[in-house]
Amino acid sequence: KVRGGALAPVSQHVCSYRAVRYETLALPVCPPGVDPAFTFPVALSCHCSLCLMDSSDCTVHRIQSPHLPLDLSS
């Protein structure tokens, strides 16, 4: 038998962009025939709140990575 709500509620604060604008740069030294335009979002403002698991992919367990320090508080 599978029970609904097996995971405990997550009370995790997350921050994300609220408003963005897009900027485009030309990448140097592209081969002929390659579009050098690179477009990316730039955050204009942020919003922080509790992560809503019904509409977001909230991380329940800390992701271990050799590129991140073990203690993120420092």
Task: Give the overall silhouette.
Answer: elongated
Q: Cα-atom Rg, whole angstroms?
A: 20 Å
Helix content class: under 10%
* DSSP E strands, number: 2
Strand order across the largest sheet: 1-2
So how many helices?
0
The biggest beta sheet is recorded as: 2 strands, antiparallel
Strand content: 35-45%
Termini, distance in Å? 44 Å
Structural class: mainly beta
Helices and strands, in N-to-C order?
EE
Mean pLDDT: 75
Residue stretches low in confidence (pLDDT < 50, at least 5 long) are none
What does this structure look like?
InterPro entries: Cystine-knot_cytokine, Glyco_hormone_CN, Gonadotropin_bsu. One of its GO terms (biological process) is G protein-coupled receptor signaling pathway. Belongs to the glycoprotein hormones subunit beta family. A two-stranded antiparallel ribbon has the order 1-2. The protein has strands spanning 13-26, 37-50. The N and C termini lie far apart (44 Å). The chain is mainly beta and 74 residues long. The protein has a domain at 13-50. The radius of gyration is 20 Å and the shape is elongated. It is built from no helices and two strands. 0% of the residues lie in helices and 38% in strands.
